[in-house]
Write a structure and sequence with these properties.
By secondary structure, the chain is α/β, with parallel strands linked by helices. The protein has one domain: Rossmann fold (3-Layer(aba) Sandwich), CATH 3.40.50.2000. The protein is built from five helices and seven strands. It has a seven-stranded parallel β-sheet, sandwiched between helices. Helix 4 links the parallel strand 5 and strand 6.
Length: 174
């Protein structure tokens, strides 16, 4: 399912005697602010819609996420992922094993957080989150905020039918 972002999802109001709905979301975003800031905007919108929502992020120890996500008040789980970058030379052959290892780490995070959904915002930390969700049988979605989809989202879009884009022309690249 492709669609454009159109604000936070509707959460039905709780009845007078029912507890507030529980929402636990794990967001994969990292590397650059172009992936992190949209993830933070999503987290903030979810928090406004469901104040008790449990929202955390997955990233690496190398990107801007190590500073930006904790500063915004969200928990950051780090995984051992490497970039989807052909310029890595021979190191690029480590990508499959790094993806499997980090997806296993994400699966553990998803289970520990009792996540109900995983969201990939792009950047190489988002792919293992979506793969870990698939292995866990959890719903997941990808958001592509760039006009030209990145490598991680092109890979992750094969793992979930739920893809949103900021630009209609991005759809053809996913």
């Amino acid at each position: 399912m492709f669609g454009s972002s159109s604000g936070p999802a509707h959460v039905p109001p709780a009845g007078p005697h029912s507890p507030p709905p529980r929402l636990s979301v794990v967001i994969g975003a990292g590397g650059t602010g172009g992936h992190i800031y949209p993830g933070l905007a999503l987290a903030d919108a979810l928090r406004r819609a469901v104040p008790a929502a449990e929202i955390s992020f997955v990233g690496t120890t190398r990107g801007l996420e190590t500073r930006l996500i904790p500063q915004a008040g969200y928990r950051l789980h780090t995984v051992d992922m490497i970039p989807f970058d052909p310029s890595l030379g021979a190191r690029r052959y480590l990508l499959p094993s790094a993806l499997v290892r980090s997806a296993g780490q994400c699966r553990t995070v998803l289970r520990e957080q009792r996540a109900q959904v995983a969201v990939g915002m792009g950047g190489y930390p988002s792919a293992p989150v979506i793969l870990g969700a698939r292995w866990s049988g959890l719903p997941s979605l990808i958001h592509e905020s760039n006009a030209v989809p990145g490598r991680a989202n092109r890979f992750a879009a094969r793992l979930t039918p739920h893809v949103t884009v900021a630009f209609d022309r991005s759809r053809s690249g996913l």
